[in-house]
Write a structure and sequence with these properties.
Length: 283
Amino acid sequence: MNLTIDVFNSGYLPINGGPGWDPASIATWPSSTATLIAGKRDAILVDALMTIDEGHQLASWIGESGKNLTCIVITHGHGDHFFGAGPVLAAFPGARLLALNTTVVEEARRHLQPEILQNWIGWFGDQFDHQAAVPQPLGSEFLIIEEEHLVRLIEVGGADGALATVVHIPELDTVCAGDAVYNKIHLWLWNSTPASRQTWLTTIYAIAGMSPTTIIAGHKDPDAPDDNALRQLAQSIDYIKTFDQAVAGSSSARNVIDEMTSRFPDYGNPYTLFVSAHSQYQT
């Protein structure tokens, strides 16, 4: 039996928009994905979302698949990719919470430290586990499902503020890209710099070099037309370049927001664009 892939999409989560956000509009966290890669009996989960409620939804979803979950693999150390793992681990006590290397693990630990944890609390309050389990390093670049299906974990560089690793499923020409590639959602460019944006572009080019036909983006609009790799790669590259040019040619966050909204009018999660643009003009 060949591997199969199923994707859980969280939808947009209401959050506290904070200072400057128009209270007449609901601020939301970008719609996120968790991916179940399964053989006949066993499966691995890529990323585990954010809130306790999402974790319970994931556990039920995996349970309904009838598969035995062997591990959860975290693409990178941002809290919205592993804080939700607790209920899944409770439902599947034999599963391990893993990341490719110690760099990802240490980033995850940082997100549970007070200075970063307070950011998450500001957005989500008590909706998530403030003492979430931290992944352990895998110690290898490979996972094997049912002794015959190869899954590769690959370090591809920097993306939205953290080291990006991706999960490559050669058998299916598919990459689970974490936050290195977005699907029809404003990219998280908060506190980015020209150098970090160039680094992100280099990361996307590295993923393109794997020649996937399908990319499962870590943040995907529920109404995105498909998971076509070429479209998502091209759109993510275009978005970063356009943002870079908008910041270089604008004197205010409002100008950047207007330009990006005009260029990408149907992209989800305008709150992401709001915080990204304002971070470029902080004094």
